[in-house]
Design a protein that fits this description.
Distance between the termini: 20 Å
Oligomer: single chain
Bound molecules: cytidine-5'-monophosphate
Mean pLDDT: 94
Shape: globular
Number of helices: 5
Low-confidence stretches: none
Order of helices and strands: EEEHEEHEEEHEHEEEEEH
Length: 220
C-alpha cells in the first residue's frame, strides 16, 4: 500500500466537456477546459489514491500517475464511469452536455431552397445523480460541481438535495472561470457552507482533496 492521506482509496473523477455529434462533421459542446477536474485527479494521486479519470475531449495532458479514459459523449462517459466503479470517492467535475442530438449518419446539407434544419434535443443521463443514487456500491463520498451565473449558493443547495450527493463545489462562472487558471468556490454540504478565496485551480484541488480525506477519515 502507498502512503498519503488517501492511500488505499479509489478516487473516480470526471473532467472536461462532453461532445454530442450532430452529424459526422458537427457537434454540440461547451467551454469546459478540464483544468479543474484534471487538477483534482492529480491532487488525489499525490495524496496516495488510486485514481481513475474519465475525461471528455480536452487540450491538456493526462495527469501523471492517473489511469485516464478518454470519451466523447455523455453516454460514453456514463459507461466509462460505471466500468470504473466501485470507488470510495466520486468527483463529477465534468461539464456534461445536458442534451444530445439524434445524429444524422450523413452530413446535413444546406441549400438555397432548403430551410435550416431543426435540432431535436434529448436529455442526457445525469451521471452524478446516477452515481449518488446507486442502491448498491454507492461511493462513500459523492461530490458534484455547480457552475452558476446567479444565486450560486441557493442553486448549490437545491442541487445537493436533488442529485443526492454529499458535497457541491459551487462557483460563479459569470466571472471568467472557463479556461482560467483560478477559481473562486463555495463548498456546500448538509453541514453548511465554506467559502474559499480566489485560488489557483491546483490549490482548489489540493484543498478539496485534503477536505475529502478529512471527511473520509470521520466516516466509519
Ligand atoms: O445542475 P447541473 O446538471 O449543471 O449539475 C452539475 C453537476 O452535475 C456537475 O457535477 C456535473 O458533472 C454533473 N452532471 C452529470 N451529468 C449530467 C449533468 C451534470 O454528471 N448529465
Amino acid at each position: 500500500a502507498g502512503r498519503g492521506t488517501l492511500a488505499g482509496r479509489h478516487v473516480l473523477v470526471t473532467s472536461g466537456p462532453t461532445r454530442e455529434p450532430i452529424d459526422p462533421a458537427r457537434f454540440l459542446s461547451n467551454r469546459s477546459s478540464g483544468k479543474q477536474g484534471h487538477a483534482i485527479a492529480a491532487a488525489a494521486a499525490r495524496a496516495g489514491a488510486r485514481v481513475t479519470l474519465v475525461s471528455g475531449p480536452v487540450e491538456i495532458a493526462d495527469p501523471n500517475g492517473v489511469a485516464t479514459r478518454r470519451v466523447e459523449t455523455a453516454q460514453q462517459m456514463l459507461e466509462a464511469v460505471e466500468a470504473a466503479l466501485p470507488a470510495d470517492v466520486f468527483i463529477g467535475a465534468a461539464a456534461v452536455a445536458d442534451w444530445r442530438v439524434e445524429p444524422s449518419a450523413d452530413k446535413i446539407k444546406k441549400g438555397a431552397s432548403r430551410a435550416p434544419p431543426t435540432l431535436v434535443l434529448r436529455e442526457n443521463p445525469d451521471i452524478l445523480a446516477s452515481v449518488a443514487q446507486r442502491r448498491e456500491g454507492r461511493p462513500a463520498l459523492v461530490v458534484g460541481f455547480a457552475a452558476e451565473t446567479r444565486d450560486v449558493l441557493l442553486h448549490a443547495q437545491e442541487k445537493l438535495a436533488r442529485k443526492g450527493c454529499d458535497l457541491i463545489v459551487a462557483n460563479d462562472v459569470g466571472a471568467g472561470v472557463f479556461g482560467a487558471d483560478s477559481n473562486e468556490v463555495h463548498l456546500v454540504s448538509r453541514a453548511g457552507v465554506a467559502s474559499w478565496p480566489r485560488l489557483d485551480k491546483t490549490e482548489v484541488a489540493a484543498r478539496l482533496i485534503a477536505h475529502i480525506a478529512e471527511t473520509l477519515g470521520e466516516t466509519p
